[in-house]
Amino acid sequence: MHRLRNKRILLGITGGIAAYKSAELVRALSGAGSQVRVVMTAGAQEFITPLTLQALSANPVHHSLLDPEAEAGMGHIELAKWADYILIAPASANFISRLAAGAADDLLTTLCLASVAPLAIAPAMNQAMWLDPATQANIEKIQRLKAIQIWGPDAGQQACGDVGPGRMIEPLALAQTLAQQFENQSLSGKTVMITAGPTREALDPVRYISNHSSGKMGFALATAAMEAGAHVILIAGPVNLATPDRVDRVNIASAQQMLDAVQQHLPQCDVFIGAAAVADYRAADVATQKIKKHDDDMCIRLVKNPDIIATVAASADKPFTVGFAAETQDVLAYARGKLVKKNLDMIIANDVSNPEIGFNSEDNAIIIIDAASQTPFPRATKYYLAQQIINTISNKL
Ligand code: PMT
After folding, report:
1. Are strands 374-381 and 363-369 parallel, antiparallel or unpaired?
2. Which helix or strand (DSSP H or E) is residue 47 part of?
3. Phi and psi of 269, rounded to 5°?
4. CA pair distance 17, 41, nearest whole angstrom
5. What's the pLDDT at 146?
6. Cα distance between residue 388 and residue 391, in whole Å
7. Pairing of the two strands 191-196 and 231-236
């Protein structure tokens, strides 16, 4: 079920007595960490109220194709694009026939046509209706046309008193089947924490020590990890970048603040990647007022900052810990030294003496190093290299 964490599930509910079980399904999906949006047909609303599902999903329930309010917020195309997976449960005989016909005469059928997300239905109806050749032909057609998955129905005692196939699969079993659909995502169910950007070490209220890190490498890693199915926590220094979709971002300024944020989220973390350029030193004393200009020269006494990644690697329940080594000479030797000294599982070396790669540029060139191997990746975009790093990490886990 952990694979459902952070997934966007669009749950369609159609008219049938099993609609009451959808409330339990929404609870199971939300409880597993999914974001759930519910779309109801007119028939479904005869069996269960939108208010119940709104309360359980913590999101407005959608039911009208031409609702002007919905169009302003989550319109049908927006909803269609939002979904990672569409599950229709229960799916009535009437809905299945409209799906097979390619109908777009209400919100739910339109969404099924407009979305490229994978789609599963959990049929629920009277056993004779399920066994009817017309329903069976519709089932065969939707599987052939759109590779729609059909989950169930179960057989047994029905609400109408009949016995036979037509019961909706139980909500928990549906949620578990849905979770299995995300198994092929290499980091599904994992939490990855990434530090990115520079830190700022204050000298006085208006001045600070920092570096040229733009955060691009760390943000590209956050995107690649999210796309591999991970829940991503991005601890970001002061950078001018938009938060990648579905990534939880924590903004910090100084190395001490970065350490505090990292330690707060460490217990839930499976992988830690330190892409931030953390200032090694900070001012021993931060002036409370703006420092005035007096002499021709001045000295600022610096003290060492805590080593964030070494702290992570020394923790009792150490996550898979990946560092970066920004070097201007003897890249391999220095990177290997940091791998050992900081007790890391892997380190990414980048030669930052070349101004076209590394700090504050679109591209990078890296060597992925662990105790047993070193694999160079020539110059490429940071996003491409981030994907290679994430692939390498997931292969090691
Ligand atoms: O942000 P961009 O403009 O995209 O640039 C990307 C980058 C060049 C900053 C990035 O690819 C990179 O190399 N980041 C690490 C920079 C760095 O500080 O390297 P380092 O060799 O000094 O540190 C080694 C490792 O220890 C790093 O994982 C660093 O995050 C970590 N560290 C360092 C000092 C400290 N006090 N705490 C730490 O956790």
Report:
1. antiparallel
2. none
3. -100, 130
4. 13
5. 80
6. 5
7. parallel
Q: Report pLDDT for 121.
A: 97
Supply φ then ψ for residue 292, to 5 degrees.
Answer: -90, 150
Q: At what angle do helices 93-101 and 133-146 cross, to 10 degrees?
A: 50
Q: How far is the CA of 345 from the centre of ligand 1 (A)?
A: 16
Name the active-site residue from 112, 160, 269, 299.
160
Which residue ranges of the chain lie beneath pLDDT 50? none
The pLDDT, as a whole number, for residue 5 is 85
Nearest atom in ligand 1 to 382's CA: 4
Q: What is the pLDDT of residue 70?
A: 62
CB 236 within 8 A of CB 196: yes
CA-CA distance, 45 to 13, in Å (whole number)?
9
Evaluate whether 25 touches 122 at the Cβ level (below 8 Å): no
Q: Which two tokens stand for residue 122?
A: 């959990």
Cα of 273 from ligand 1 centre, angstroms: 10
In the reported structure, the alpha carbon of residue 61 is separated from the centroid of ligand 1 by a whole-number distance in angstroms of 45
| CA-closest candidate to residue 308, choices 345, 279, 335, 288 | 279
- 269 in active site: no
DSSP state, residue 44: G
What domains, with CATH codes, occur in the chain? Answer: 2-179 (3.40.50.1950), 191-396 (3.40.50.10300)
200, 304, 309: residue to mutate for ligand 1 pocket, most atoms within 8 A of CB: 309
The pLDDT value given to residue 148 = 92
Sheet holding 374-381, edge to edge: 248-251, 231-236, 191-196, 271-274, 320-327, 346-351, 363-369, 374-381
Render the burial of 270-306: b for 16+ CB within 10 Å, e for the rest.
bbbbbbbbbbeebbeeeeeeeeeeeeeeeeeeeeebe
Which tokens go with 307? 């080593």
> ∠ CA 134-138-140 to the nearest 5 degrees?
115
- For the purposes of burial, counting CB atoms within 10 Å of the CB of 163, is it exposed (0-12), middle (13-18) or buried (19 or more)? exposed
Which residues have C-beta atoms less than 6 Å from ligand 1? 195, 197, 213-217, 255, 274-278, 280, 305, 307-309, 323-326, 338, 350, 352, 358-360
